[in-house]
Design a protein that fits this description.
Elements lengths: L1 E3 L4 E3 L5 E7 L4 E6 L4 E4 L4 H12 L4 H9 L5 E3 L2
Antiparallel strand pairs: 1-2, 2-3, 3-4, 4-5, 5-6
């Protein structure tokens, strides 16, 4: 996993996700999936983003986390 601390972007080596990015000002999580579709998830709290990073750092599934904690609760907008 690579982190760009300025942009908070994370590149993943995951079966589901290619990259994640978080915008603190807008509380928006951007997820790019391996099928090259990208979604903005709206009003995601920074605390949840930090929890997501901890899960990734520990080697657990990023796909499972987004499916359980993000997709069911936060509105998404497909951007590609």
């Amino acid at each position: 996993m690579k982190k760009n601390l300025q942009k908070k972007a994370v590149r993943l080596n995951s079966s589901a996700l290619k990259a994640l990015d978080y915008n603190e000002d807008k509380n928006m999580l951007t997820a790019t999936f391996n099928n090259n579709r990208t979604y903005h998830y709206i009003n995601v709290p920074e605390k949840l983003w930090k929890e997501f990073l901890s899960v990734i750092d520990s080697g657990k599934s990023a796909g499972a986390f987004i499916n359980k904690h993000i997709k069911p609760f936060y509105k998404s907008i497909e951007i590609t």
